[in-house]
Write a structure and sequence with these properties.
about 190 residues, Arc Repressor Mutant, subunit A, mainly alpha
């Protein structure tokens, strides 16, 4: 039985995940990825434009599609918890992925994956309070995706202290308290 296009993309992604656990991103070539997946270098380009696109696919395939199932059922908190747990399960990989910086940084592409989902959630929200004139759904989606991305990145960079519940608690705290609420009580003392 021959593999379909999706199966070959998954095979390349799995090979890439293993390579990224062993080598820094900049040391991994398309040839290495293809050979690890049992393919030729030209075959790689049938499925991905470059290794940056492949990096985004890994996050999309291994995490976001599972999270999407919960979000589609309106289970937002469970979706966030699954997101954090999935990152925890693959922490070594994602720590190295977030180290990919520059124009095609993983942080940027991961944030865009989150932003797209959050924008959709906001657009489909049954009851949405009126937004101030300068605030759009795009702005809100960007704000919340940035917060999620930075929470995950900080947790990975700081020796992954605490458990998933601690990461969720920290993220929820940030969303439930405004800056002025946190600063104002100290000014009164």
């Amino acid at each position: 039985m021959t593999e379909c296009k999706e199966q070959k993309r998954i095979r390349l992604a799995a090979a890439f995940k293993e390579l990224l656990r062993q080598y820094p991103f900049h040391k991994i070539s398309v040839k290495m990825i293809a050979e690890s997946a049992g393919m030729s270098r030209p075959s790689f380009y049938k499925y991905f434009a470059d290794k940056y696109e492949l990096l985004g696919f890994v996050a999309e395939y291994w995490i976001m599609r599972k999270v999407d199932m919960l979000l589609e059922e309106g289970m937002i908190d469970a979706g966030i918890e699954l997101l954090f747990r999935s990152i925890l399960n693959e922490a070594d990989f994602f720590e190295r992925a977030f180290a990919v910086t520059g124009q095609n940084s993983f942080e940027k592409s991961f944030g865009e994956l989150l932003e797209k989902r959050i924008r959709r959630l906001l657009a489909e929200a049954p009851v949405m309070p009126p937004l101030p004139a300068l605030l759009t759904l795009d702005n809100l989606a960007r704000y919340y995706s940035f917060g999620l991305t930075q929470s995950i990145k900080a947790w990975l960079e700081h020796a992954r202290q605490g458990e998933v519940k601690d990461l969720i608690e920290a993220y929820m705290f940030l969303n439930e308290h405004s800056l002025s609420e946190l600063v104002w009580p100290r000014r009164e003392q």
